[in-house]
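Sanity check. The docking grid for zinc ion depends on where the pocket ends up, so I'm generating a full predicted complex first rather than guessing from homology. Inputs follow.
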Amino acid sequence: MSFPVPGHDHRRCVAGALDAAEAECRRRGARLTDVRRRVLELVWASHAPIGAYAVLDALAGDGRAAAPPTVYRALDFLLAHGLVHRIERLNAFIGCSHPGAPHSGQFLLCKECGAAAELDDPAIAGAVATASARVGFTVTGQTVEAEGLCALCRREGGDG
Ligand SMILES: [Zn+2]
Ligand SMILES: [Zn+2]
Ligand SMILES: [Zn+2]
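Predicted complex below; grid placement will be based on this.
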């Protein structure tokens, strides 16, 4: 997922993500229950990562206040099936627009607008694996989180 284009039709992002999630769950024989689907929808409320407590608040706003364990379980499910990613640096979650595809676990986080984007560059993963092998370390998982300014925020900063 790249950075969102300003003024884009975000309903299409959400609809596309929910469709992709349904398809991925079907493929895996997993069940996207109502609460899991709603939590996924809330994670997709924007392109900025959202924390578990904000998800809880939004559910309460629905008039279906859920107990924290319900939300944590739903998030665990979504994580386990690759429908959301966890951004460790922010202790928050971001929706995945291409579940089921290979991932390198690379994320760009804009400090200004809060949006996050996924990179999938095998060269980065390869460089980490090669450097690790030199010290006798075998990489079984890696996450790269880079923080900075997206193109839009950089432009706006330049104007001011
Ligand atoms: Zn969008
Ligand atoms: Zn992803
Ligand atoms: Zn930005």
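Relevant for the grid: The longest helix spans residues 10-28.
Also worth noting: Residues 47 and 115 are 5 Å apart (CA to CA).
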